[in-house]
Design a protein that fits this description.
Elements (H helix, E strand, L loop, with lengths): L30 E3 L3 E3 L7 E6 L6 H14 L6 E6 L10 E5 L7 H4 L21 E3 L15
Parallel strand pairs: 3-4, 3-6, 4-5
Antiparallel strand pairs: 1-2
Length: 149
């Protein structure tokens, strides 16, 4: 997977030494529609990635984080992807839920530090067409996350 701007999934070997993050040379997967033909996402479009597993954080707290990010970000994330161990009801509108692959649900991955976060790099789990910003559920957002992309 590769995205434009800040993207932790870009191998460092693809980055030119000394190049600013926004100049990384990554392909963008074009979307297409019947009337418009191939399209590129807007230059400022980005996606938010969250991970929710277990019972420590309720959906209300996730929704509060999403609302805070949407309120502070300009532009707001074009997509929100929630990786989880089960379906969660009552999420904010527009949140795409994806299952954490079974291989990352092993107890050794779900322990302290939650190495299950590495699942976000599994092919097809997070769409590669937009740069992604990952935020832990217990993060306090005090500014515009869109500046990261």
């Amino acid at each position: 997977m590769c995205g434009r701007g800040l993207s932790v999934n870009l191998p460092l070997a693809q980055r030119q030494p000394g190049a600013p993050l926004k100049e990384w040379n990554c392909p963008v997967v074009a979307a297409s529609g019947p009337e418009t033909g191939p399209q590129q996402p807007p230059e400022s479009a980005w996606q938010l990635v969250l991970l929710l597993w277990g019972t420590k954080y309720p959906v209300a707290e996730v929704n509060h984080l999403i609302a805070a990010i949407r309120a502070a970000a300009a532009p707001a994330p074009a997509r929100i992807v929630l990786l989880g161990d089960r379906p969660h009801e009552g999420l904010a509108p527009g949140v795409r839920q994806r299952d954490i692959p079974q291989a990352f649900r092993a107890p050794r991955f779900m322990a302290q530090g939650c190495q299950a976060k590495l699942a976000m790099f599994a092919d097809g789990l997070v769409p590669p067409d937009l740069p992604a910003v990952y935020v832990d559920i217990d993060t306090v957002v005090l500014g515009n996350l869109a500046r990261l992309v």
